[in-house]
Design brief:
Oligomer: single chain
Strand order of the largest sheet: 1-2-3-4-5
Number of domains: 2
Distance between the termini: 34 Å
Order of helices and strands: HHHHHHEEEEE
Helix content: 40-55%
Structural class: alpha+beta
Strand content: 25-35%
CATH class of the largest domain: Alpha Beta
Radius of gyration: 23 Å
CATH topology of the largest domain: Nuclear Transport Factor 2, Chain: A
Mean pLDDT: 86
Amino acid sequence: MIALFTESFLFWLLCVGFAAGFTFALWVGTRRKSMLILGLSATLATTFLGAFCLCCVETDRKAVRRTVEALADAVDRDDVDATLALVSPTALKTRFKARAHMGLARIEWAKVRDLEIVEINRYTSPPRALVRFRGSVGGRVSGFDASRFTVVVDFSEVELREEEPGVWRVTDRCRFSYPGYSGEINF
């Protein structure tokens, strides 16, 4: 329910529209300037409250989205340490594969698109989030200047775990599917 107030732009748009409509109806019914000023003040206050809730209130969804975007940014910078900082210390397979793959190549760019937070489960201990996205990475194979590569991930499903309040990290539960490859690659 709290997500309705902190993440739904449409909810606040409807609230402002309702306040403006109510103001107009009140003014038409009374033709009093004081009612118009009161209604416009309420509409303006609703607008500011909505903007504050949407921009300034931190939610799990915003924290998870920020973690995935920070991970993509760390890979884009080819920063192994920053990438591993976003992977759980207990996710040994994921840490090993990230270090190995990033060590084999000089990454020049990385992008994440179609980011979808499928679920956030606060009833597990620790809380977990399931994220799906499409992505792509490009660069050069280390040691070979002419060997460029581009990897397009058609479908990714990654689980994140909240290890400290507000700090989400990637776990070993990662699945990837590539175009032209019929199966899935699990970490």
